[in-house]
Amino acid sequence: MIKWFADLVIYNWFNFSEGTRLGESVHFFFYDTIKIIVLLSIMIFFISILRSFFPPEKTKKLLSNRGKFVGNFLASALGVVTPFCSCSSVPIFIGFIESGVPLGITFSFLITSPIVNEVALVMLYSLFGWQIGTLYLISGIVVGVVGGIIIGSIGLESEVEEYVYQIQIDDDEIEELSWEQRIEYAKGEVKDIVGRVWKYVLVGIGIGALIHGYAPAEVLAKYAGEGNPLSVIVAVLIGIPLYSNAMGTIPIAQALLDKGVALGTALSFMMATTALSLPEMIILRKVIKPKLIAIFIGVVAVAIIGVGYMFNWVM
């Protein structure tokens, strides 16, 4: 239905020529914008109802006093259904540390949450199929678990700013919501999240449209395809200075795949952009010291690179 409407508007009403670079780019932008915004709104509504059962207070209680491995896995799994953007990193970090959540478990949550939030996962399943979506889900959790375990094993508690341990946050009672309240909450989440991310989605779709219409497939396949052993490393290094959420990078990954870029290379770019963005590191600097930030970047980057090569090998 959406594709038929996009064909009608672009090729019939505006008379763009089908098969030309400009026509294909404009069609890609128009079609993907409608499809992703509609899908995003529907999925946010239903998934927000699910998320209403996991407020931050309950998340902190579930993660407190958990041991290694189990706690890291649980934190990563909760990161999937409890997405937070990088602007929320500071209060989440403080809340977890204050609640007695170990440092490594806290990082498992913070690593997985931006990489595999549930809305982006639904979009991945819809755009790329269940095989790629499932592999991405498993990989994102593995990156969070492994990264958190490594950081927790090094003993870096002294690299957290001292004031974080001194903050006392009231342990508010968790309010049980009615279904009417959950529906209103879900409506509010649709308005809030779509209002915050639509700019990144449009930018991502715009870049994807340019790649789809104008980037030479043979060049991308040569330098970013499976034949280049350094393609994953380059993709991660390019992704780190950028900033976007998973919803904004998915259209870019889709366009790259259409041009012959290797799957692991495209998805490792997505992971690096969402989990290791420069703005997030600047925000995290308020609560952790440069040494821990450097270790965090190094551990997660190596894990993402490993996942990228695994994708290229498996797929």
Automatic annotation (TrEMBL):
Membrane topology: Multi-pass membrane protein
Keyword Transmembrane helix found: yes
Gene Ontology cellular component annotations, sorted alphabetically: plasma membrane
Transmembrane segments annotated in the record for this chain: 28-50, 71-97, 103-128, 135-156, 197-217, 229-248, 260-279, 291-311
Record flagged with keyword Electron transport: no
Annotated localization: Cell membrane
Taxonomy, superkingdom: Bacteria
Listed InterPro entries: DUF318, UPF0718_permease
UniProt entry keywords in alphabetical sequence: Cell membrane, Membrane, Transmembrane, Transmembrane helix
Family to which this protein belongs: Belongs to the UPF0718 family.
Annotated protein name in UniProt: Permease
